[in-house]
Amino acid sequence: MKLLRDFLVCVWAMMPGGLAACDLALVLAVDVSGSVDAGEYRIQMGGLAEALRDPVVSEALVRARARVLLMQWSGASRQQTTIDWTTVDSFAASDRLADRVEENPRVWRNFSTAVGEALQHGLAAFDTAGPCARRLIDVSGDGVSNEGIAPGEVHPALRAAGVTVNAIAIEASEPDLTAYFYENVITGEGAFVVTAQRFEDYPDRIRRKLLREVTQATASLVENGGVRAPVTGAPRSD
């Protein structure tokens, strides 16, 4: 089935006017485990929304015809998509997505940290993303996995599906979390970890992280002869 899917995607990409419907499918996976209090949750959502409104990030997402999904994750069996795949094909769409992220209500409050199961949920989400040139899971977390399947056990399936996992380690209570994420969570070509020493650092770090991810995706496609999508509306300057 996977070979057939990949074959059909390649055929579609070769058809006139059929080059990938999107260049980037991006899963934003936000930690809502018990170690994250209400204020820290709002910092994460507000920081994500601010990053999506960044002029460079939003333009890169539009050019990539990106599809973005937001999920919240906590302990075992507690992972949920809270904003399904949303196509960012205009600056208005980017702004609407940012607003929805900022207002997204929290699903859980007092459970453990199951990073591996978060990766499984993110991987499964790509089944409904449609054909995209690049697949990326962006994990935010403030603790090591302490429940459910180990993150490393999901890596073979992620690699087989062509999914890259990057992470932002919030070291408020886990000073060695960056090293843990490097060794156990991220995977794929060019995968990386960004460190936020405190939750207050999160907005700046997630902005830098998304800048690196989405501009890297767009630049890579241009360098390899890809077609940049037309940008809808005037360039962002705010």
Map the helices and strands.
Layout: H1 2-14, E1 25-31, H2 38-53, H3 55-63, E2 66-73, E3 79-88, H4 91-103, H5 115-125, E4 135-141, H6 155-160, E5 163-170, H7 177-184, E6 193-196, H8 202-223
Parallel strand pairs: 1-2, 1-4, 4-5, 5-6
Antiparallel strand pairs: 2-3
In short:
The protein has 238 residues and is an alpha/beta fold.
Characteristic terms for this protein:
238 residues; alpha/beta; Rossmann fold; 8 helices; disordered N terminus; disordered C terminus
CATH class: Alpha Beta
* Beta fraction: 15-25%
Q: Sheet with the most strands?
A: 6 strands, mixed
* Shape label: globular
What would CATH call the architecture? 3-Layer(aba) Sandwich
The total count of helices amounts to 8
The H-and-E topology, N to C, reads as HEHHEEHHEHEHEH
The neighbouring-strand order within the major sheet is 3-2-1-4-5-6
- The N- to C-terminal Cα distance equals 45 Å
Strand segment tally: 6
Mean pLDDT: 84
Number of domains: 1
CATH topology: Rossmann fold
